[in-house]
């Protein structure tokens, strides 16, 4: 696929969007040399500078989010037919919707997914963190993903959504299938396996809603059904799609935040030492982790009309890949943006949770979980450090970046 006239072009050998092992040096080159270019591998315009990414997020009328959950690679005919049979087409919680539906549903979800409900979870999050860390703190070593970061966010979001503990592993595996089907680069054979998992996942979410119609519960879907019964305009299908979205977004990104954040803090021992000695630095350290090594390094939009980004003409109906992982290090907005600094004054200006009407509704919960984990790790295993000579591996996809394992010792 060739770039439109006047736009820089990069083929797969120059830019492989599915390789997230260490994209940051290349992001820097993009900002300096090709801040907007056309990816031949994806057929997307790629945007890398802070002001440009923020401007696209801000303008939902020109740049729709309706492609945010669309698969990058075409779904094979067999997998597509299987999914369509089960009504698994075009599902989106909030990130892929636009006003007026987005405004209506987000207002109702915000009433249920309130700070009060999130704060109610804090003691349970701390108990979980202490329980998990206590299991390995006398071992002198741990694998943080397997023994902490993988399960804790899932258990928390499942508490919020009322998922029984014995369903955690299967729902978590279904969520991984959704990640790979939407943001990955699967073979036709693998697509069929993951498509069936997504069908199971969607049926589970519909059943959650149906069960609460009969037996009301004190959880997020239960609250949404109560609001529906009080006259707020939200359908059973829309509630199921919120569950479908939150059962994925509510833990997958927090797993990556805990993993990335712990790794970055340990890779900068002076920062780890500082939060051990001064726990009050933890909230800003989390913002700096989100800026420097975000859970999601890119997101998508589609141009609804002809426009110009960074001096490049973008035709209507073009797809855009917004590199938040690059924007967050843009030195025009962050002094010494390639440096990790937990006392940076404007770390909160990162774009890792998006910007504008689609700013992540779950960001307070994600930050609360990581804050609690860091408070307990620094208290219970303050001498923790990275194991030497480990090779960090990352799942092949365009957006979700975290090592698949993180080995530590003390």
From TrEMBL:
The keyword Calcium does not apply. CDD domains: CYP130-like. Keywords: Heme, Iron, Metal-binding, Monooxygenase, Oxidoreductase. Pfam families: p450. It comes from the Bacteria. GO terms for molecular function: heme binding; iron ion binding; monooxygenase activity; oxidoreductase activity, acting on paired donors, with incorporation or reduction of molecular oxygen. Belongs to the cytochrome P450 family. This is Cytochrome P450.
